[in-house]
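Sorry, explain these tokens?

***
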Amino acid sequence: MSFLVYDLIFLGIFILVLGIFLYQKRKGVKREGLLLLYRTKWGINLIHRIGKKYQKTLKVLSYVSITIGYALMAGVLYMVGKIVWIYAFNPGGIVQQIKIPPITPLIPYLPQIFKLSFLPPFYFTYWILIIAVIAIFHEFSHGIFAARNKVKIKNTGFGFFPFFLPIFLAAFVELDEKAMAKKKNFDQLAVLSAGTFANVLTAILFFGVMILFFSLAFAPSGVVFDSYPYTIINVSSINMVNGIPINNATYNVVLSLMNNNTQFNQIRANSIDYVASKSSVERQNVTPTELVIYYDAPAIRANLESTILDVNGKKMTDTVELASELHKYAPGTNITLTVLGQNNAPYDRNITLGRNPDNPNFSWLGIEFYPAQDQGIIAQFYSTLSSFDRNHVYYASQIGDLGIFIYDLLWWLVIISISVALINMLPMGIFDGGRFFYITVLAITKKEKVAKWAFKIATWFFIFLLFLVMFFWVLYIR
């Protein structure tokens, strides 16, 4: 049974249990704005105990926390500016590839619904566990630094958005705001940045756990190639298309001899065989004197899958081993490759090796590997199409689907921790970064009126940027 089925069952049970709990505690649930809040005293004693016991350590960490706060604020400002620039002046690629609105919150099943293949699946189970870890660490960190600075903690608790069923939870630690406002600017900054500081520590901690888990639960089990070999040729050098000789070839002549009803057309130039589809050649009419085409190789002819596990029963663990094994066979030899097909199901493919165009004495499969840096940051960090791809090595879980489930959970936990830390430092009213920015301006100018004015301007400016990005998304998504 698919894990999605179990996840939906868990979602139903969670909603039922939470609904019963909120009904039983309905007298303690209060509505404030868009949220329903349930206040408790859970954890307050523990927060005070830590805040008072480790005052010297927390004093030192206050400097670290504030420094990280400013660094994150600078980072998120750069990211927002970069996003606005991309959507305003270079929207084609990102808008067409991602398609979803840029301000869409990360909710369960979002990557599956919108088929975001560069992201792993995101289940409700992941979502609720990650929310619990991030929210608790974030809010308790606020509370611990508040206790260290003798700011009264009134309540702890959680809230949810009733418009989206009682599952969109948020934890909170409610401080005495009047007492907070009377503290020194440095102490307030330390309390406000403590949540993002905790998110950064959470990301670092679980990144280490993820690396350790991966090293224990996964092992090299195959090779992943990027493409089939291709080159650029001059159209004038083409002397044959689909067996028909050509003299003084031109783009239009070559195109007229190509077939629509076949995936590949045979092209010969400079005594070397190539293949190309008619549609790919039609797309290149901007520079009709040159063509980008594939070498005629066994891999492209067979439409070979990108992950090779075994060669004639011998397991492949890296590109060097794969090349060495293929060189053992002469051109024209039939070999059996075990590859990953759809749904990560391995099966055998029979391939006849060709002749290497650079050295006819060597066999040739016809696959190509790109440098790791050309694959992009996300592709290097994680690949979910069919494998965990690290420098063209396929790593298989040694404990089955459980290994992939845990690795995906840890990956999402790291990514969301970093994202929450960044977003929370936006200089806007609804985030910690808003008041952090306000206090910074107040400390510099010593004028409360100027600080309030800067705070309002910053908030409305970023709201404007959000609407601007959405405007460009609507404009270019059609």
The chain has three domains: 28-218+403-477, 220-226+305-397, 230-296. The first helix runs from residue 3 to 24. Residues 260 and 278 are 6 Å apart (CA to CA).
